[in-house]
Amino acid sequence: MTSVIRHPPAVLLPGTGSDEVFVRSVFGGPLAALGIPLTAPPPPPGAALADGFLAVLDRLADRHGTLLVGGISFGAHLAAEWAVANPGRCGGLLAALPAWSGEPGQAPASLAATLSADLVAASGVEAALAQAEAGSPPWIAAELGRAWRRHGDGLADSLRVAAARPSPTLAALRGLAVPAGVGTCVDDPVHPTKVAREWAAALPRAALGETTLAALGADRESLGRATVLAYLRALTEQPRPDRAH
């Protein structure tokens, strides 16, 4: 008799300056193929971004008991932060494009978010968008145009929150013995694959899934598939004794 794996409901968070529309375009299909319901909450406004998302995870965990948490970039950081603080309520982690470990320091994603926040604060959302879109591929320009306008007047504050907030350290990730899929785009200089590999190596039950920005531009689900397939591989692994505490 074949056993059926019961996955907890998924709650996935967007990256810096992004929104739940992008999260659904990346993860909706891959999770639906496994019968996993997806909740993708919209970004809390402005400076409430991080604490607001963590409060959403708390409320949903109170409702469901156990969650499969994750997200993209800063959303992956917040989900991992919540999972480290709530290991008994976390049934798994889907971390796509982690950007740094511990303090952001000179991480490219942190510097980019800070520069964008300064530009938005000085020139307004529309002028900042015009400059950001000019140097971006069409699909990224379209995503920025929708999401940044939705953030509106709170965009600069939310960018600063994301740029400055530490992610879990590698030592903290070593104590999180849940199945974890870590996804990376190997040609993404803002979210270095080196960071994703470090996360996957630190987490006791993790696998790494790889795709490219070129593939993501043509098919948003390519990143979701890479991350979810890594999570499925991690489900079969036992915690590595050299990593778990």
Structure description:
There is one protein chain. The protein is of the alpha/beta class. The protein has two domains: 10-101 and 168-235, Rossmann fold (3-Layer(aba) Sandwich); 108-160, no CATH class. It contains eleven helices and six strands. It has helices spanning 20-33, 49-64, 74-85, 108-123, 125-134, 138-151, 155-164, 170-173, 193-202, 213-218, 221-235, and strands at residues 10-13, 38-39, 67-72, 90-96, 180-185, 206-211. The protein has a six-stranded parallel beta sheet with strand order 2-1-3-4-5-6, sandwiched between helices. Helix 1 (20-33) links the parallel strand 1 and strand 2.
Fold blueprint:
Layout: E1 10-13, H1 20-33, E2 38-39, H2 49-64, E3 67-72, H3 74-85, E4 90-96, H4 108-123, H5 125-134, H6 138-151, H7 155-164, H8 170-173, E5 180-185, H9 193-202, E6 206-211, H10 213-218, H11 221-235
Parallel strand pairs: 1-2, 1-3, 3-4, 4-5, 5-6
Helix pairs in contact: 1-11, 4-5, 4-7, 5-6
Short description:
This protein has 245 residues and is an alpha/beta fold. The protein has helices spanning 20-33, 49-64, 74-85, 108-123, 125-134, 138-151, 155-164, 170-173, 193-202, 213-218, 221-235; strands spanning 10-13, 38-39, 67-72, 90-96, 180-185, 206-211.
The CATH architecture of the largest domain would be: 3-Layer(aba) Sandwich
- CATH classification, class level of the largest domain: Alpha Beta
Q: How would you sum up the major sheet?
A: 6 strands, parallel
Strand order in the largest sheet: 2-1-3-4-5-6
CATH T-level fold name of the largest domain = Rossmann fold
The radius of gyration is 17 Å
Mean residue pLDDT: 94
Looking at CATH, the homologous superfamily of the largest domain is Alpha/Beta hydrolase fold, catalytic domain
Q: Span from first to last CA? A: 34 Å
Label the overall shape.
Answer: globular
The helix/strand series, from N terminus to C terminus, equals EHEHEHEHHHHHEHEHH
Instruction: State the helical fraction.
Output: 40-55%
Our count of domains comes out at 2
Low-confidence stretches: none
Residues in β-strands, percent = 5-15%
Per DSSP, the total helix count is: 11
Class derived from helix and strand content: alpha/beta
